[in-house]
Structure formats: structure tokens, C-alpha cells
Amino acid sequence: xxxxxxxxxxxxKHPFELVMAYERRFPTCHLIPMFVASDVVDEETSEDGSxxxxxxxxxxxxxxxxxxxxxxxxxxxxxxxxxxxxxxxRTLHIESHNETFSNRVIIHETCCYSVHPENExxxxxxQTASLDIKSFFGFESTVEKIAMKQYASxxxxxxxxxxxxxxxxxxxxxxxxxxxTPSSLPLALPRPTSLSTSPPVLPKLPVSPTVxxxxxxxxxxxASQDAKQDSVALQSDSLTEILxxxxxxxxxxxxxxxYLGDLTPLQESCLIRLRKWLQETHKGKIPKDEHILRFxxxxxxxxxxxxxxxxxxxxxxxxxQVDYLLETWTSPQVLQDYYTGGWHHHxxxxxxxxxxxxxxxxxxxxxxxxxxxxxxxxxxxxxxxGLRRCEENTKVFGRPISCWTCLxxxxxxxxxxxxxxxxxxxxxxxxxxxxxxxxxLGRLLILRAPRVFPVLWTLVSPFIDENTRKKFLIYAGxxxxxxGGLVDYIDKEIIPDFLGGECMCEVPEGGLVPKSMYRTxxxxxxxxxxxxxxxxxxxxxxxxxAPHELLIEIIDASSVITWDFDVCKGDVVFNxxxxxxxxxxxxxxxLGAHGIxxxxxxxxxxxxxxxxxxxxxxxxxxxxxxxxxxxxxGSHLTRWPGFYILQWKFHNMPACSATxxxxxxxVLATLQVSSHKCKVMYYTEVLGSxxxxxxxxxxxxxxxxxxxxxxxxxxxxxWAEPVx
Length: 724
What we know:
One of its GO terms (molecular function) is RIG-I binding. By secondary structure, the chain is an alpha+beta fold.
């Protein structure tokens, strides 16, 4: 398995010419004990002195078990490092790869120092790396762990090393280095006297490279790694991709520390790579960095697992328009009067504090009066408000706050609260919140737990994530009033009056919901359906041989068909057809006759099998292949009236030639599409061309409170002759 790493942008608030004190770390650096020696293999300078290229062979003394070194047959690991300094463009590109044991282990690293795009007196640093261990005498896992550990430790020292040499320059009275000009000669910073001794003799290695413990090219670049992170890396062309992006597409290391917290280099890399994947696949809006980070933490920074649950949550948010919940949802008066929960200041860590007097809540009455879905929507609005308050507190307290504290008072809890429909509603709410708001609960304080609480806990705890359960603190009776109790987590001044404090709390006291407000089961069911069908999106299942098709009749030429769809599962091909003939009545889910159903979505075919492409109907847009997880927006300007058919069909993997074996990626992709089924969620609308142009202008700067990257609508039109 290839381990990849991508750093955030690290900023040195010093001019590029001063940061080039980086060169002082050669031939050895006392700050990097494992960096034993380096020897210049090749060096050249352009005629005008603007470009300087140097190639070094670096030796590392890897901190690995002696037995492993003996098996490998070497004492040192050798790397080749190629540096290209462009004084005119003010850039330094560094590429390095392992020479030792390169037939078994492939390590590649690229780094770049460049001028800050907004302040030419600052310098940016970026880095990517990759580690691919093909074989190592059965010690592949051990070698990988050693490599990542060594790489991480040197990355942490990276910035320290640059700062050390900058301080050394300052002590020597060098506070400014003039920029290169065509008439100037190449400038070389004076070597520090402490390291000005003659270069040490490089440990010799047999001509044919033997084995060696694969170590990230960290030591060789350790100073260049000052912005380095803690994993092992990316492909060589990744640097080009990073540099090609706009500054807004990148994450700054200082920003991460200020707004997201202290992350290890590996965690930073996971965040950046997942964020980049979302930008590439979800062409419109993507979640804020704090939200992406929550999903990564929920899956212990396993990027594949985090990506899966995040995409499912984004689809859910989009389908139910959760981004607009705070603006569109108004709590019914029953909830305002009888729902015993509310926000109350913050805890000692600056986290928003939510108080729930569950023991005083008439759960049965609320479920009977409102229904399960209304209660769920209210809880979702509480979570959305919690996200907003976390952002506010982050600004107020000057440190990252990504979760809140919940205080649950159970005084009054009895068997009435174990009413089966009420428990069912509670479990449903827990399930939805766990799936879509991971790592938002920082601490849960349960006070005055009665004897009936273990029964409720037995029912509920299996549905709560293990990491979340570890955040629960349970106090029976008045135990919360003593040492280690409530005052350890909440300032005494804001402890609510009903818990013995002096602070007035505006949380409703609850009470029994009047039975006159109860509604019949039929009324509640209709209300529940109405609430959760308030979505502009529809879902459809696509099977192999059974595409899903949508009919749009156009009366006026020059109308605009717009679409927005997410590929929730599998890969699909999107087509648009035109016909003057109206298709016959749609055939729904023809696979049902064979025992295959399409839960969670419909399946409709409109194009009759007797129709001939080019005679009965024509293709008006080139087919578009869409991968799983992609979000696609587009439009088509119609030229003729008639019937337009939007089609999503199963994407068949291309057949391999007789002489070539199938690629592993293709085989895995085929296996992932279980039962040859795909699923899409879509929305379409027909606009007049003038209206569409107006919408395009208005939408270009829009974004929701949940999203951080706006997407401008595009107006791409393709023409096709109609079928005569």
C-alpha cells in the first residue's frame, strides 16, 4: 500500500533570500543527528547566475533495530537530492528519492519554497511525499512504521531548523540579503563558523545498492521539511498540482493551528487530501474545514472511511435541505412551552453549554402532540445552532472550539419515560445525530440519575458510538455537588438555580402536555410524510440494463433545462435525448418481476426498445461519465420544442483487450458496485433563457452557512440537429 503525504502551506515571515539560509544545513546539520553526511554529486549554474542546480548524495543513520539493519545489510540509508534554486523567480524546488534498496522500496519527495502570493516579503513552503514498500524480507509493516516515525520526528523539527539559521544570520548581523538582479553575481550566504569544518567523509556503500531501511527523505530535506508533516507521501507530480492551485484552495499551517487545533502532520495531510478530493468531485459547495475534520476524527483519520460517511451525510443534508434549517424551521408553540432544553452560557473550556432537563420532559406527550419527525427536526436545529455557536466561541476565546457540552438533569425520570414509542423516537434521533454530527459532543454530564436510569441506559447505549460513550460522566443523587463534580467543568457563577446555583436559567420547566393537544396516529403520519418530503430532490436506482429516465416537455424553444445531481452509489453515464414523439407511458422498475427491487428510489424507462437512435430520437449532449461521490451541475439550451429525455444509465467498465490483464483498480471498482446497482439523487428545472442568465448572475456568489466554497454557475450550450 502506498502511503501518501501532503503538507499545508507553511509561511515564514521572512524574505525568500533570507530563508535560503536553508543551505547552511549542508553538508551536515547538528540539529538532525540522523543526517550523517552529504556529498555534492553534480552542480551547475546558469550563465547569468540566476539558476543554480545541485545534486547531493545524503547518508542517514536510521534509528532502526540492529537486527533489521543486519538483515538489510547496511548501516546507512542513502538518498539522492536535487535542488533547483531560481533566484530570478525566487523559488527553490527540491526533489529527492532513495538510492538504497530502491528495487524494494520507493520513496519520493518534492518540496518547494516560493514567495507568498500576497506579501513578497514572506516565504511559503509546501511538500508532498510518498512511500511504497513492495517487499522487505517480510518486515514490510515494521519498516513502514519506522519510516513514518522517523519522517514525523524530522518534520516537527523542520521549522525549528529554519528559524535557528535565521537567528544565526541575525546574530552575525545579516538582516537583509539583496534580491538577484541581472547584473548581480550569485550570492552565497556565509557558512556558520560552527559548521565550517571540512565536509566529513561520506560512509562508503557497495557499488550495487544493497538493502536499506526505507526512511522518508526527511533527513536529507529535514530543513526543507520545515513545513513537512508526519506521514510519508505523494507522487512527484503532486507538487505541480499544488502550485497550480489558487491560494484560496490551500490551507495555511497557521490557520489550521488557530481555527482547527494542533494536528499531527499525518492528520493535517488527511484533512488537506480529503478537502482537495471534495473540491474536485463536489463541484459546488463543500463543508467547512471544521466539519470535515470532525468526520476524520470520528474514523481515527482513516481517510477512506471518513470520506464514505461524509459523502453520505452531505447527500442527506442536501436532500433534506438541512443547510437552511435555522432559517426555515420555526419550533411549534408546544415545543417552546414543553421542550425542557436550551443553551446556557459555556463551560470552563469555552464550549457552548446545552442544558436538557430530561426528567421534567413529557416525552410521551410531545411525541403524541408532534410526532417523531417534528422532534427530530427540532433536535437537528439544536445541532445546527451548536455548530454556529462553536464558530462564534472560536472567535471569542481565540482558540479552536469544535464541540459543545451537554448537561442532562434526570431528576423526575420514571417509567413514563420508558414508553416504547418515546424510546423509539429517542433511538431514531440518536442514530441520525451520530451519523451526521460526529465529534460534536465534547462532554455529557448526567446529573441526579435515579434508579430507573440503568434500564434506559441499557436500551440506549448500544446505539451510541464507543468514543462518544467515553465522554459521559454520570452522577447519582447529589454527588455532582462535591469535589470532581459540576464545578470542575462549569464556573460556579453560571450553575443553574435548579441545581443549587445562583444563575437564572431560561430553560422551560416542562410539565405534562395537555391531552387536548394530542393528535391521531393518522394526522401524525401525514405530518411526518409532509415534513420529510419537503425536498426538491428525487432519488432513483439504476441497474445494469435498466437506466432511469426523466421526461421534460418543452413548449417554447430557447428554454433552458438545468440539472443538479449527486451520484450516491456506483458510476453512471448521463445522457440527454430529444424526440418529437411523446414516449409511451413509463415502465417502472421492470426488474421487480425478477425479484429485484430498488428500495430508496424509483426506476423508470421511457425510450422504447423499438426506437432507433437517429430516427426516433437524437442525442443532444455528449455522454458524461460520472463517478461515485461526484456532484454534477449543468444546463442545456433547447433549440426546438418537443420531448427531452434525461437518462442516467449504469456505467459498464471497458472491456480489456485479449493481450492485457485487467487493471486492479478496474476490478476493485467492479466489485464495489454490488448487485450492479447505482443510485442518484437529482433535481431538474426548466427556465426561460433570460431568466437563466439572470439566475446565473445572482447565483455566482451564493453560499450557505454550512459551506465554504461558492460555485459559479456555468452556461455551456451544445447544439444538435433534431430528428426529422
